[in-house]
UniProtKB/TrEMBL annotation:
InterPro entries: ARM-like (IPR011989), ARM-type_fold (IPR016024), Armadillo (IPR000225), HEAT (IPR000357), RSP14 (IPR042856)
Keywords: Repeat
Protein name: Radial spoke protein 8
Annotated organism of origin: Tetraparma gracilis
Keyword Lipid metabolism: no
PANTHER family: RADIAL SPOKE HEAD 14 HOMOLOG, RTDR1
Keyword Repeat annotated: yes
């Protein structure tokens, strides 16, 4: 017969591991979990509790529960103030998870989470930075979230990060910047911080995600006349023209969209022809992706105002025939833009 262990002897208490997260049930579940995360003396327990929280946040009911018991301020504090890297990484991961939930986003706005975690986009850990970008990207899906980001000063901060962020996560500040500039004040702040130059500097980045985000952001910035002028002066048109041949369809679509915005000015149209972009646009009329074709049709319609560009389009053996094919293919949206492009190409002064 086996000898009883000390903790198995009758009347002796069972020893409990201090680092083990023991689940509570019912109304006590969420408060206990947040209490374990909030404690300061046991880093192992805190990180274990944070990992459990990340799993719990997959459940919408739990997400609502932990939000109601004050998870957001605890997580923002740990993300920015903890000296333990694992804690910052786990806390920021939980914050990204909670931001997916509508209650979590509401709590983040109420608690000024954007302002609280602004410093975390400069954390020494790329995991923390990536998690924070992800959390704020989820927050930006609601208008109040974008307003909170702009009020916290993210537009200029993200422009700076677009120039300095590590290659593997650089697309994230650019994507978040795109959300910020859809707010009028955010757009002004970004332009004042030389966002156009930051985007152009990323158009030739090795990452397809970065190239896509940079072109998309530049296209939206170029709705402002000052951005159009800056983009032309900094030779964005030839760069975007070369991106029309990119192997990744999202890059091609974003490049065509950016060109469409920039060439609204006469100077932009004049830059298009010497950049050799017209034949590339015509070729993309046969692109397999509909978004690419829609952006190309819009760009062709705009570019055709310029006599030299219109002459190239008319003399092309592909341009008008392919435009007619798109018109007859049965897709209502594509057909609409194809008709507009055809009229522009056939226009007589």
């Amino acid at each position: 017969m086996a000898t009883p262990q000390p903790h198995e002897a009758k009347g002796m208490p069972i020893l409990v591991q201090e680092e083990k997260v023991v689940e509570a049930f019912g109304a006590l579940k969420c408060p206990k979990l947040i209490a374990q995360i909030s404690q300061e003396n046991n880093t192992v327990l805190r990180n274990n509790a944070l990992k459990v929280l990340c799993e719990e946040l997959r459940n919408p009911y739990s997400a609502s529960g932990v939000t109601n018991v004050g998870a957001v301020p605890v997580l923002t504090s740990l993300t920015t103030k903890s000296e333990d890297k694992n804690t910052r990484e786990n806390a920021s991961k939980a914050l990204a998870a909670i931001a997916v939930d509508s209650n979590g986003r509401a709590s983040m706005i109420k608690e000024d989470a954007p302002g609280q975690v602004l410093s975390a986009i400069s954390d020494s850990s790329p995991v923390v930075r990536s998690n924070v970008y992800e959390a704020l990207q989820s927050l930006s899906c609601v208008r109040a979230g974008v307003s909170a980001l702009v009020a916290a000063g993210y537009a200029p901060a993200l422009v700076a990060k677009a120039k300095s962020e590590a290659d593997d996560v650089r697309h994230q500040p650019l994507q978040l910047l795109l959300a910020c500039i859809k707010n009028d004040e955010g757009l002004t702040q970004a332009l004042d911080s030389e966002a156009v130059s930051a985007c152009i500097g990323n158009l030739e980045h090795k990452s397809t995600l970065v190239r896509t985000a940079a072109a998309g952001c530049l296209g939206y910035l170029a709705f402002a006349d000052s951005a159009k002028i800056a983009a032309i002066q900094e030779d964005a048109v030839p760069l975007l023209g070369s991106m029309l041949e990119d192997s990744f369809w999202k890059v091609r679509a974003a490049a065509a969209g950016a060109l469409m915005s920039i060439i609204q000015t006469d100077a932009g149209k004049k830059a298009l022809v010497p950049a050799g972009a017209v034949p590339k646009l015509i070729k993309l009329l046969k692109d397999p992706n509909d978004l690419v074709k829609i952006n190309v049709l819009k760009t062709i319609a705009c570019a055709a105002v310029h006599p030299d560009a219109r002459k190239e389009m008319r003399e092309s053996s592909d341009c008008l025939p392919v435009v007619h094919q798109i018109m007859d293919a049965g897709d209502e949206l594509l057909s609409k833009h194809a008709k507009i492009a055809r009229e522009a190409v056939l226009w007589q002064p």
